[in-house]
Specification:
Elements (H helix, E strand, L loop, with lengths): L9 H7 L8 H9 L1 E6 L4 E3 L7 E5 L3 E7 L5 E7 L3 E3 L13 E6 L1 E7 H10 L2 H26 L2 H16 L1 E3 L2 E3 L6 H8 L3 H13 L3 E4 L2 E4 L2 H12 L1
Helix pairs in contact: 1-2, 5-6, 5-8, 6-7
Length: about 240
Amino acid sequence: MTVSKDSFNVIEIIARGPWFKNLPASAHEELAKGAKLELLKSNDYVFGVGQRTDSIFCILTGWVRASVNSADGDEFALTDLQTESWAGEASLFNDKPRVIDLHVKKDAWVLKIHRSVVNRLGEQYPLMYRDVAAYQVERARGVYELLAGMLLYPLKSRLAGRLLSMADETGQVVSEGVQIPQRMSQSDLARLCMGSRQRVNKILREWQNQSLVVMCDDRYVITSIERLAEEIELSER
């Protein structure tokens, strides 16, 4: 199925957004008037480290990864943004350069609204900023939990946690279990959990032998969410 600009009901997408759900319909219409839709290709960036942005963004389709990168090119993936994830709220408050990359891993339609439109409505409806803050708090909590896991937990726990998180956010129920829709290499998974590809490969082979995590149509399928969660507990003992 071909996706085009006409495939999206922008007003409904905005009305469902966590920052705008408590605004009146007239505000949703005003935001929609100021919205633009862009198709970004694989390896494009919604924005990059050091870039100054003046808009907020909503990921509508595709695969976009939030990450930080070292000067040597090493990547630490924070999260993969799911459908109708919003980003770029920092631009509502300051002009400082961005400190993370939003890297398009698979062609993505992105909705973009200039901050002048958003802040004008925020002046009329200050409640909006409360909802933005609540969203930031929840996102920060996820980052803190991720950092704690990366620093304190063994690789098997980190890998299981990443797979479970992706299954929860974007997983699709199939006959074999829960499929993660993104096609990811072992190197991708290694970057997600800060491990070597060789060690990740060894863990995945172990799980495949147990029929716990299997490959179907070049995608990972978790056959039992409960059993994979137990892997976190077992590897922490």
